Known about the structure:
The structure holds two protein chains of two kinds.
Chain A: E1 17-20, H1 23-33, H2 38-41, H3 43-47, H4 73-78, E2 85-94, E3 103-118, E4 121-133, E5 139-150
Antiparallel strand pairs in A: 1-3, 2-5, 3-4, 4-5
Chain B: E1 20-22, H1 27-37, H2 47-52, H3 62-77, E2 82-89, E3 99-111, E4 114-124, E5 130-139
Antiparallel strand pairs in B: 1-3, 2-5, 3-4, 4-5
Amino acid sequence: MPLTINKAIVGKEYPPYAVTVERGKIKEFARAIGDLNPLYLDDRVGAASEWGDVIAPPTFAVTFRDEGADTGALLRDLGTDISRVLHGEQEFEQFHPFLPGQTYLCRPRIVDIYEKTGRSGPMAFVVRETAITDRANEIVATMRGVTVIRL
Amino acid sequence: MRYARVYWDDVKVGDELPALVKGPIQQIQLTRYAGASGDFNPIHQDDEFARAAGMGGVFAHGMLSMGFVGQAVSDWAGAGTVRKLGVRFAALVRLKDVVTCRGRVLAKASKDDVHLVELEVWAENQKAEKVVTGRATVALPVRG
């Protein structure tokens, strides 16, 4: 009997959360990818750059998490668990690089849920978008992720 | 040469990015990426868990492969130039896989003194199967 995904959460907004970008986190993240670009790793190169500091790599926003939230909340809302989840798609749009020491506000919401049957059986696709703004409430980036749930 | 500056004027539709070869993927890199990204899904760490979940064993975070693609783009275009990066995870990356990231210029556009290049990007494994497919947009400086 396949799982039934709770589509009632389409449109649901999760509580906004703030993240402060840490210099060490940028470097740890770049090194974990093996991307040794000096603009991510070398403070002097960063200071001499047009941004005046090191910047974060293109996919860094994936590290932004609501530390105060229960990480299983979305999966529970959907009626599934982590062993059935795959990452289907991901997109980042970046209007300005993330800089160390800056605080950003993330506003996630569920924008769509749809079902399809693929090679490996029925699947649900959950589309989540997060708008990321700075202290001046200017948009800095958006991220859009598609989570695939094997039903 | 890596990190050479690319000017918008010099880019032509059809130009190919230098291939970026990453891997072979090792468990330690997945553990390191889990710590750096905060994604501790045991499916990327615990082979028994991944088998029980019907995945045939541990596989890499899709976001790690996307990170490789982001590196391929910024190695060519420069760090901080990536305005948009969007991918689909087409196949799983397994331990010992070698991931090669590639890209090709699809279009150029200029608007309001912002000079954009649109790219087709992808990553393939050692069997030439695409594991990631997507698009990227970079903003480049102009000569002058």
